[in-house]
Amino acid sequence: MEEDYSDWLKAGNIAGEARDYGKKISKPGTPLLEIAEKIESRIAELGGKTAFPVNLSLNHIAAHYTPTLNDQTLYNEGDILKIDVGASYNGAVGDTALTIGNDKELINASKDALAEAIKLCVPGTELRMIGKVIRETINSYNLQSITNLSGHGIARYIVHHGISIPNYDNGDKTKLTNGQTIAIEPFATNGEGQVTEGGVSNIYRLISKRPTRNPIGRKVIDFVNKEYKTLPFAKRWVEKAIPGSAIAFPTLVREGILHSYGQLPERSKGLVSQHEHSILVREKPVIMTLGENSD
Ligand code: MN
Ligand code: MN
Q1: pLDDT tens across 254-269, in order?
Q2: CATH of domain 200-262
Q3: What pairing do the DSSP bridges indicate for beta strands 151-153 and 74-75?
């Protein structure tokens, strides 16, 4: 029997609306913390939950940064800002991103690559062909596709599930199937086209519920397990709910209970743009994360 996709379309719609709202409020001089918190509030107002913390990655950071509780970083004139938003509805996930800033070529390269890739999101397409069109489109702007970042399958309560969708022709002949839920996310850069692991992102995920002797740590585990299950969360969310809990994080990471995501800077410090949509694979592909004001 065909799955009911209404939760997926709802999650996608919320994510798309919140992403576009984020673009609207991100004027030069705005603190990243304000942008993140407003987008996250918008997701709640629209009836969704955050599927992961709003990622606000500047300039050569391709992905994986969310502000801390006392973050002073601003989005400044001349910056390239990636706004990556995830919303969930009954566990179904919408994952979507756009980039703002003055470098229109850089921004259009990933946007155009995404549009070309979506045309191929039909049953039977080999994954390598999606990567091929993404890289060719970005190369046509004299820019590089970031080859060690990829799109992915999406499942309930799991943002990255199953297949990886490459941003270059990696030879993967796996075929898309009717009804698959996937995210496509090309990254364009004027650097080498590789990310490496950088500083802390302030994003974590519960990977084990094994006991810890740390009493605050136990509170953190119970809270995270109840609120976010297997989905990524921001340290600031936990600190707001459990004041003073920041102190337990290093222990929980060392004990293998929390996974700490690292920032993903471009290796040669190239500027990076990203665009992402969540797609339902159909003979006519369905873009689940379209917002009403998407351009
Ligand atoms: Mn994303
Ligand atoms: Mn994604």
Answers
A1: 999 999 999 999 999 9
A2: 1.10.10.10
A3: unpaired
